Amino acid sequence: MANGLTLAITNIRDLLLENRLTRGQDDKAISDIKLTIPNYQRPYKWTAKNVIQLLDDIIDARNHNKEVYRVGTLILHHDTENKDGASYNIVDGQQRTISFCLLLKAFPEMKDTKIDFLNQMVSDNAYTRNNIPKNFAALKRRIEGIADEKDRNELREYIENRCELVVVITDDISEAFQFFDSQNARGKKLYPHDLLKAYHLREMNDLPADETEKIVKSWEDHDQAELAELFSEYLYRVKEWIRGNYADGLTEQNIGKFKGITRRENFPYAQFYKGAYAYADTVNRSSMPFVAGMQKLSAFQIDSPIIAGKPFFDYTNHYFGVLKDIRNNDAYEGYYIKDNPIVKTLDLNKYTHGTGNCITRLLFDTAALLYVDRFCPEIPSPKDTELLDNFIRYDFLWAYSLRAQYKNLGWYSAQNYILGRTMNRKLRNSFNIYKTISEADSPSALLSTLADKVIPLRRQDLARDESEEVKKDEDKQNAKQKDEREYQYYLHFFKAFHYLEDLG
Predict the structure, then answer these.
(1) Which of 278, 303, 429, 431 could make an SS bond with 401 (beta carbons 3.0 to 4.6 A apart)?
(2) Which tens digits make up the pLDDT trace of 355-369?
């Protein structure tokens, strides 16, 4: 190895069935590769969803006649102190390597084929114990669903011979981890929104280069931290909460919900959503809205599937703008929340810092985003604005009921509150407001439902007694001119709206 570092390319067959790497830096095979899982490796956490997605991606690559399908990087530490000299510890790539072993064994004709890598002991961990048999069963069912034996064999041959890994080998363990870090940190890691950008650009290979360049520039012009936050903190969480699921974080493994419907999919549901987008896009590009005196048609809904390719970038720009508008309480800018007294208080410095405050504000903002998405036209009428203001009141009461009932609020408690799963502690107003919004047919119907669901807090419900602070704040504000008032305590609004009992 030159300078202790070797680069290679290998296909799956050579790596797992022949214990070698296909091509080293001198274009010759590297033999006697004994892959091992070191005890410092994490458990096997890939789920059935992940392995099926891997298989579907491979099938898609084969259907598009890709000569070679690169499936990732494998970082190996050549353990020269091992007595047989052939031990290569997997530093990065364990999840994918185990998954490919399970995939090969899922083919009926591979049942008795020996894969040395599978003969080693792995850590006795609950994730590993559960995921390996479940993933194997899922892959086996999927492979057995390919009825044509010839097609199945061709797929297996494609996996073995055309799926390739880039391999990095070093005999210095610290260098191995340094290389691993360089791939997964220091700005080089591809975050979920970066992966989505790359995926959807691949779906636009029929667009002229200048149009693609324009779309990429629009994406890059956005603040990238805000773009990451849009997907991970807002759109992802709302999508999960609507369905009654915990939303623990957007990762490479669960970005599938943002990949959407491709042009190749012709299932009835796919045709419906593609048709809806195409119709809205056609109308909005035409002179019809101007001639008919109508507003543009909405081409998106948060809880609907995304259309892959260019529509994804339109979707991103749309929600980036809507969220920016919602979070801006300026009296003279934007169309949605403007000079709202509740939001003025929530924008105070003391309510924008701290984990609990940030979580609560996120709940408030995401519910507002979902309401606007479902019920507000691009330019709301005075009636639309009045209904939105009424919703904001209930949104505030719901979100900040959670804050009022916890001294120290974390994500576990917040998500249980959102999903109505607080059996160990009887929290008031614990219900899924996102599901409630998504199931409402009109703003009026939603407000009627919320009037029934949102109930007042009592003194004993409060995590800390702030009645004196609220009273002092009210006295101070009442001494000012009405248009100068800015209440310092969010509980003032609970009392003002008659949603705080026994506070005096």
Answers:
(1) 429
(2) 999 999 999 999 999
